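Pasting as-is:
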Amino acid sequence: MKYGHYSDNEIPKSVAVDRKLIVDYTVNSSGYRCPEWHPIPNGKKNVAILGCSHTFGEGLDDGDVWVDQLHSRVDQSRLRFWNLGQPGASADKIVRILYATSKVLFPSIIIICWPLWSRRERLDSYAQSLMSYDPLLKTETDRTDQNNFLKNVFFAEKFAEQQTATLFHCFAQDVYDIPNSVVYSDTSLKLCWPEWDQHHLPDAKREHTTSPSLAKDGVHYGADHHRVFAEKFYNRFKSKLK
């Protein structure tokens, strides 16, 4: 089924597929940092992981991205990971990609690392990712951002319900309230590092950090953020990641 830019059996090409920077990463023929999905392998549960450039892992080597770090912790004989993160992705685009996995990946587990809710996707002759500073978004407010985000949460939850899949929500930067859902809201990829425990037990993490942990592009969060975020996410949900 396909209508305009929406499909249930054709995952859209990555926006990174034609970028020179893509040569720095191991990607499939569609430009995603995951294996080829044609033909789809048998024998494991498929885990679809969606998000923006932080989930794609811009500026990070293979293995350093939080998706890879999480994959190294789960039972790989049972679960197969598909990193569908997209540079510049909005909640709109994430949900569009999610629906496209329906008859391609048949996901049993879905993890969405939501970006800032101020982003949008404009579907013209091509799909355009809009950031909060784009002139086309000058009339948007925090309230309309919130409601657009919750619209996409609803569609994601409905997709998971129809697929009988388990859906987990987490966050790349700001943490938002998502009621009645499985949410990791203790921290975000941005906020999880450096670690600083409030308690005073001997195992408290109190190391002073004076330099930021950045990816090789000097913009995105570095491997420390990704490692800690994956560890915290896994420790929270490891009994459900099966």
